[in-house]
Every structure is written in structure tokens, then in C-alpha cells.
């Protein structure tokens, strides 16, 4: 073997090792491929079993994401909130609403004083797709403008439109003329 | 008589069935991800949990499918 042939063989070995490092050779590739990186017709063939690796990786990634979303949703529902001062009662007239945040600053909520003076508080997120709902005293309803969902202001139950679940209720009480939120009802 | 040279690769070059399975599986997984996010947005933990369970079951089915395939 002359110098030129030795050099060519060394180059071939190096390129084969680079291919192996880049993951282009399968793990069960025979060792002689390192020294003789020759290909033949049909070698690009991918087994169905190999193909399903990608299938599994994709599926597992989605499953992890979905499980993460579920865990997040469960943690949210476990957050009942702590007692929080909302507003003085005399600042909310009969048949009007007062907007506040509960249990965190990122959770919009709605305090409603019904025409008969009763107080109700709900999360302001529509149970259909999370749009913000508001109180319409003239129609005696809570309304979602996104998809025209309607809720009963005294109970929070969905009465029309796409929402099927009631608004999430907030426990409230009046202490010395001040309305307090006591926690989310689960 | 010709010697047995194993399975003829040319017969297996097209895996249309697996491609369809892949599309159905990914579509299902995307759908369940959307359902789970909807559960988070609407504070409905049971909806998100159900979506996660189906998603994990679908992945388990994919594992089973891989075990079933021999080549």
C-alpha cells in the first residue's frame, strides 16, 4: 500500500467516524463500516420499527405537555385564596357591579349587588373560553360578549349560549360595612 | 432452487399505513392538548385531567404498536 492509498483509507475512516458521531449510522452498524464507508443500493431503507421511534417521541412529548396542563389546572383549583378586603358596602349601589381581583391580581372577579340588595361574587372568566363577563342589571343577567353566553346573576348558573358550567363562585361576607372575599368555592 | 436470502426489502419500501397512523396519532394528541389548555383556561381541572389520561393512553398505544411491529 503506497502513501496515497494509506491517506485515502485514513480519510475514509475519519469521515465514517464523523458520520457515526453525527448519528447518521445506526447503532447496530457493523464495525467494518468505519474502515470501509461504502454504501449499497437500498441502504437508505428505514425500518418501520425505526420510524416508530419518531412516532413515540412525538406522542410522548404531547403527552407530557398535556399532563403538565392537567397538573397546572389541578393546582389552580387547589388555590382557594385567602381572606381579602374588597370594598365598602355603601360604595356598591343596588343593581350595580364592582370589579376586583381574586384570589391573585391576575384573576379578575366581579362583585354584584342585586336589586334586592343581596351580594354575589364570581370569577369574571367565562367558563366557555375564558373571556371577561360583565353584569347587565337592565337585563338581570351576567353576559359574555365573546360568544353571547348568559349567566344567572344570583347563582352564576349558565342559562344561554355556549357555556355549560356555572361561573366560579367566591365566598363573601360583610364585616363592619366592608365586603370581604373568604375564598373560592370549589 | 435459489437460496433463501431473507425478506425482500422492496416489498416493504412503502409504509403508508404507518404514515396514516402517525397523522391520526398526532391529530389526536394535538386535540387533547387543546382540550387540556381549555380546561386550564376555564378552571376545569377534571377536563384537563381526562385529556391528560387519554393522551397518556394514546402514547401507551403507540408503545404497543412499536412492540407489535417486528421490522
Topology diagram in text:
The complex is a heterodimer of chains A (186) and B (71).
Chain A (H helix, E strand, L loop, with lengths): L2 H19 L10 H4 L12 H31 L5 E5 L7 E6 L6 E6 L5 E5 L10 E3 L4 E4 L4 E3 L6 E3 L9 E6 L2 E7 L2
Antiparallel strand pairs in A: 1-10, 2-3, 3-4, 5-6, 6-7, 7-8, 9-10
Chain B lengths: L15 H26 L3 H24 L3
Helix pairs in contact in B: 1-2
Describe this structure in words.
The complex is a heterodimer of chains A (186) and B (71). In chain A, 29% of the residues lie in helices and 26% in strands. In chain A, the strands form 3 sheets. A 4-stranded antiparallel β-sheet of chain A has the order 5-6-7-8, with no helix packed on it. Chain A has a 3-stranded antiparallel β-sheet with strand order 1-10-9, with no helix packed on it. Chain A has 186 residues and is of the alpha+beta class. Helix content of chain B is 70%, strand content 0%. Chain B has helices at residues 16-41, 45-68. In chain B, helix 1 packs antiparallel against helix 2. The mean pLDDT of chain B is 79. The chains are: A alpha+beta (186), B mainly alpha (71).
